[in-house]
Design brief:
By secondary structure, this protein is mostly helical. Helix 2 packs across helix 4, helix 5 packs across helix 7 and helix 7 packs antiparallel against helix 10. The longest helix has 34 residues. The protein starts with a helix and ends with a helix.
């Protein structure tokens, strides 16, 4: 197979240009369909995300409250019921819509940047290396959108300590967290943990988009090799992958994203669940990471990683399937 054919196989379906579609319509599609896909994915993953944050944010100076993900699930359901695992989902739903739409929007901007640089002409398909770059580009910009939303989410997800009279702790609302952060730390306080989000999103999204495109290319090549005739090859070149192959490509993206840069997310979660308005100063990203390493080593940095990778597979699969499906079947 010629090199041009191999590159073209990598482009289907997500890189196929839509002739006559304006940049404005492309942007609207990215925002609307990305928001829908993000909300669907968030409902699937949120209970697992709650457990992950609770595992990550356990204090250094106290015995571990949870022995692992299953124990955290058990204690959480016993204390608050199943709905307790969805505590604070309103902010993450907004965040999922904002994050996913931003990721697809900035990823397309990243492609435009690559073409504008003269690296390739616009009639050429971007190689996989460029698609890993556009993923990192997207994640870097999206991190600034995501940090305030995740800060609010983390503070709601992590159980508060019991009050002095023994009464059950009151679950903070979104607005109460926003008011508390603004009162004590101002606008800047909403970007506490930005470094962790930046590292996780820029590196993780390079893996997210890159793994999805790499796996998609592999399936296209396998399908093309199994075709019995040139007519069948041409038909496969214009069709979307079978749903199960789309799901595998999306799942591989989510698992790569979460595993490779999980330590940055752990440090970020610990920073964002620290009490607001305390007498001590907030630790920097590197100070928090060093303290966690000294206390628990590499294992502490990956606390909660298993359940995060597990929940990311179906969530990411649905996100890409919904987004690509909407763009293909309901173009604007």
């Amino acid at each position: 197979m010629e090199t041009t054919d191999v590159q073209n196989m990598a482009a289907k379906p997500s890189q196929i240009p839509v002739q006559g579609k304006s940049a404005a319509k492309e942007s609207v599609e990215d925002i609307v369909y990305g928001s829908v896909a993000g909300i669907v994915g968030k409902y699937i993953e949120y209970p697992f995300d709650t457990v992950k944050v609770r595992l990550q944010s356990q204090p250094d100076h106290l015995p571990l409250r949870y022995t692992g993900p299953l124990d955290c699930f058990r204690q959480s359901i016993k204390a608050d019921g199943v709905l307790g695992l969805y505590r604070g989902i309103s902010a993450p739903l907004f965040g999922a819509a904002a994050e996913t739409s931003s990721l697809f929007f900035f990823e397309r901007i990243g492609r435009d940047v690559v073409y504008a640089s003269g690296y390739l002409s616009r009639d050429q398909v971007l190689p996989l290396s460029a698609l890993w770059f556009t993923g990192a580009f997207s994640g870097a910009f999206t991190s600034f959108v995501l940090t305030p939303i995740e800060l609010v989410k983390c503070k709601i997800q992590v159980p508060t300590s019991s009050s002095k009279d023994g009464a059950p702790p009151k679950t903070p609302s979104v607005m109460s967290v926003v008011r508390d952060v603004y009162k004590h730390e101002g606008v800047k306080g909403f970007w506490h943990g930005q470094m962790g989000t930046f590292l996780r999103e820029s590196g993780g999204c390079a893996a997210w988009f890159g793994s999805k495109e790499t796996t998609t290319k592999m399936f296209h090549l396998l399908n093309e090799q199994s075709a019995a005739s040139q007519m069948e090859k041409d038909r496969l070149a214009t069709e979307a992958l079978p749903l199960w192959q789309q799901a595998v490509a999306g799942a591989s993206a989510g698992m790569s994203y979460n595993f490779l840069f999980f330590p940055a997310d752990t440090v970020k979660s610990r920073m964002q669940t620290a009490p607001v308005g305390g007498s001590g100063q907030h630790r920097s990203f590197w100070q928090e990471g060093k303290a966690l390493w000294n206390q628990h080593g590499l294992r502490g940095l990956y606390r909660g990683c298993g359940i995060t990778v597990l929940r990311s597979a179906p969530s990411s699969a649905f996100i890409f399937m919904v987004f690509d499906g909407l763009k293909r079947h309901l173009p604007m």
